[in-house]
Amino acid sequence: MIYEYEGKNEKEAIEKAAQELGLEKDQFDVEILESQKATLFKKGYVKIRVHPVDSQDHVAPEFEGSVPNVTARAQNPSLVANPLPQDEFEQKIVDFVKTMISKMGYEVAVEVMFREEKKIGIKLTSENSPILIGRKGKNLDAMQLLTNVYASHLGKDDMRIILDSENYRIRREESLVRLAYVTADKVRQTRNSVLLELMNPYERRLIHTTLNDIPDIETKSEGDGLYKQVRVIYKGVR
Fold first, then answer.
1. Alpha-carbon gap, residue 51 to 64, rounded angstroms
2. Whole-model pTM?
3. How far is CA 158 from CA 64, 105, 161, in A?
4. Which of 84, 98, 200 is nearest to 147 (CA)?
5. Which of 74, 113, 125, 183 has its CA at a distance of 20 to 30 angstroms from the CA of residue 167?
6. Arithmetic mean of pLDDT over the chain
């Protein structure tokens, strides 16, 4: 099921969703649909869509924070993982990913990139990394989805597996943040809205969050299905 909530800000909307659904905040994924900052004559609000995460829903997890807590990991060496599998579950995940890519016809080295509570990062090293990543990371996302489904079959519904290659996830995040600011400047200059490329829920949320504090700019998601577009709109300062 998918639910939508509104609040004065993202925090209030998420807290309202958690209270009404009776879930903890880490038990659902949040997609920002629309965001508007408060002005002198207008109240601010944020509209979100909530995707509860359970054994029947493997869509949202693979798109959530691709390489989460990057800054924290850099500041705390203890978060950097031993690249070798540390238990039977990790070994099965590594073997699954390696076999999947081998059957695609490519050689790859697979190792553990990081370990966090209920989340494991898997690093793929291959001469064919551009193919494994695919356009806008779609091949990587597809393999990540299959890996999370497999993890669920192993009885690890609450564990999320993140696949990355050549630091694509971090580079993509940085690229999207730059795109958000450049687009906001263009919209401010032309007073015309701009519709961005199709993005998955995590990427759209990154755009919404990046531009949320700019008072004369607002954003909203448009389209149907998993991949949607974000429209960046000039609203002026009233």
1. 11
2. 0.59
3. 13, 31, 10
4. 98
5. 183
6. 79
> Which burial class, exposed, middle or buried, applies to 58 when counting CB atoms under 10 A from its CB (0-12, 13-18, 19+)?
buried
One-letter-per-residue 3-state SS of 113-160: EEEECCEEEEEEECCCHHHHHCHHHHHHHHHHHHHHHHHHHCCCCCCE
**Tokens at residue 175, please?**
């690229």
pLDDT tens across 97-149, in order?
999 999 999 999 999 988 888 889 999 999 988 899 988 888 998 999 899 99
Distance CA 11, CA 35 (A): 12
169 close to 204: Cβ distance less than 8 angstroms: no
- In three-state secondary structure terms, 170 is helix
